[in-house]
Write a structure and sequence with these properties.
The protein is an all-alpha fold and 206 residues long. Helix content is 81%, strand content 0%. It has one domain. Helix 1 packs parallel to helix 9 and helix 3 packs across helix 8. It is globular and about 60 Å long.
């Protein structure tokens, strides 16, 4: 991969990371629910999901998902179900006393990381996207493994910066909205957005 090719991919990576999607929604929801410090635990999970997608594409499984209607539909509806589940959970979340909640134990670190990982890993749109975009930046005359590593590290960097920003933004909103009514409306908003993301994935066509 030449420097010019990498710079082009680096620019594309920012657009990929900033564009609204399930990952951005998960980062903001985590900041809303847990504040900045614990909310950031979602970010490494999202990045691990990116590496999982890249691994799937790299070993050729992504081509199977893209070519097989059965495999694609199974993965797609798994993603739909997971997004709707997250939406219902967020919608039903009760208002909380943040003064007491700051010292309380929330979801475990493992649960937060693995939930974020699953969100990005079980996403056929991501697989199809990687299959469509990544090959454009690969030099097939050169070893592919170093190029995949460069692509993965580049996406990890841009996603780390952008998702940290989304989490911090939501955490600041969380601190500003303390009344039970405001919290309930915000939970319903984010819950509805998760369900909407699931419905959009259900309508997604290859």
């Amino acid at each position: 991969m030449t420097l010019a090719t990498w710079l082009a991919f680096f620019a594309a990576s920012w657009a990929i990371s900033i564009s609204p999607g399930a990952g951005a929604l998960a980062a903001m929801t985590s900041g809303l629910n847990h504040g900045l410090k614990r909310g950031l635990l979602t970010v490494p999970g999202l990045i691990l999901g990116i590496w999982t997608q890249l691994l799937i594409v790299g070993v050729g499984l992504g081509a199977l998902v893209a070519a097989s209607t059965t495999a694609f539909e199974w993965v797609r509806w798994s993603g739909v179900a997971y997004l709707v589940y997250l939406g219902i959970q967020q919608w039903r979340m009760p208002p909380r006393d943040w003064a007491a909640a700051e010292s309380a134990v929330h979801r475990s670190t493992w649960t937060m990381v693995t939930s974020a990982w699953a969100l990005n890993a079980v996403n056929p749109k991501g697989t199809v996207f990687f299959l469509a975009v990544v090959p454009q930046f690969l030099d097939l005359a050169q070893p592919l493994l170093p190029q995949y590593l460069i692509i993965g590290l580049t996406l990890s960097f841009t996603d780390l910066v952008v998702m940290t920003g989304y989490t911090a933004l939501a955490a600041r909103v969380l601190r500003a909205l303390r009344s039970p009514q405001q919290q309930r409306l915000l939970n319903q908003l984010f819950g509805g957005l998760f369900v909407l993301a699931g419905l959009m994935l259900a309508l997604f066509q290859r």
